[in-house]
Amino acid sequence: MDLVLSPELLDLQHKVRGFIAEEVIPLEVEVEMAEGRLDPAVRKRLYARVKALGLNAVSLPERVGGRGFSWVAQAVVNEEIGKATNALGWVLWDPAIVLAFATPDQVERYVRPACAGERFDCYAVTEEGAGSDASKMTTTAVREGDSWRLNGVKWHVTSGDLADFALVQAATDPAIGDGNTLFLVDLNLPGVEVIDHPRYMHHLIAGHPRYRFSDVCVPHDHVLGEVGSGLEISKEWFRHERVMIAARCCGAAERLIDAASEFAQTRVQFGQPIGEYQSIQNMLADSLTELWGARLMTFAAAQAADEAKTAEDIKIVHTRASMAKLYASEMAHRVADRAVQIFGGRGYMRENVAERFFRELRVERIWEGTSEIQRIIIAYSLYRRGSEALLY
Ligand SMILES: Cc1cc2nc3c(=O)[nH]c(=O)nc-3n(C[C@H](O)[C@H](O)[C@H](O)COP(=O)(O)OP(=O)(O)OC[C@H]3O[C@@H](n4cnc5c(N)ncnc54)[C@H](O)[C@@H]3O)c2cc1C
Prior knowledge:
It contains 10 helices and 10 strands. The chain has 392 residues and is α+β, with helices and mostly antiparallel strands. It has a 4-stranded mixed beta sheet with strand order 1-4-5-8. Helix 6 (230-266) runs parallel beside helix 8 (311-343). The longest helix has 37 residues, at 230-266.
């Protein structure tokens, strides 16, 4: 395993790092104070910059209009975008990797425009009664000739306020496949309605509205993948997102450690910098050590995904993605907590990066599968395969 980034990947890291530091991070405090609102003109300008830099749609293959980056290269990008608070790094828009399952016609209507920034997607799985158990959908899709009738309510639809189409997971005939199907649903269709825009702990540049689908008529050629493969395809999305969440958590932790270290070396109390006190040093040393561990896991999981050939390889990647997400998300939360402590009262102010990350990183232990669910995945995979298959 190659633990050193190649010169090409270092160039990529340098490019994303420069963009985030110079053009994105300076917007954080204004966006935070505006509860996550990003001026539409600024958003448009940033999207144009991202496209000019070749940093949009990095996950999808070139044949559908994406940049076709390896998972390791995507991890490099996500680590850097994770350094910005308020999800400002999401201006590097990246349509869901599972859009690679689209038919040629769907590619032209949805995927290429989404890669180009002309259309935006969101992913709607979660419901009031179906969270961790994403197999228990009450949203239904019933076949009626050449179309499907879609009914149900979806919660926490991230970017549902920006998107113009959704990937909606719905229950279909339980006798076919996994009993779930994914649909590409235009959000301007009759019967599609935003119920509300709930407020959350964080202030991100994208919201998480609740959507209701009432007798929405979705043409059959809007099925993504096969009928009855919805859960399987969503698992692929989870796998990819878990590795990228881990990478973003590493980026956030790195920024927090650097900020807290700089503060510790300059903030004087009792006649000397607080960084001279061992209890402060312990927090910084533990943070850096845990970050190093999380980075190694994250990049190893990404590399395993790039090298996976068989179905069993993919199952091992799935487990490693869970381990990386579990460890990196919990590590980042510990690091944010220590950073708040090191900054003292300043760390409790919304203008401080540690305060913002302390709130924002909390969700990393919940979405794309909670920490408890990651542990279940890891434990069952251990029982099935043994530790050697998962470690080497
Ligand atoms: C800000 C935000 C954005 C989101 N964005 C999206 C999105 O874009 N699309 C989407 O579809 N979903 C989205 N989600 C939903 C997210 O994926 C779910 O919240 C998550 O999967 C957990 O489901 P739940 O909230 O229903 O909790 P529940 O499943 O009800 O779990 C509640 C608690 O019980 C625990 N638990 C559940 N089952 C077990 C078990 N078997 N063993 C041990 N403990 C268990 C959980 O770990 C958790 O602690 C988002 C959520 C948030 C908060």
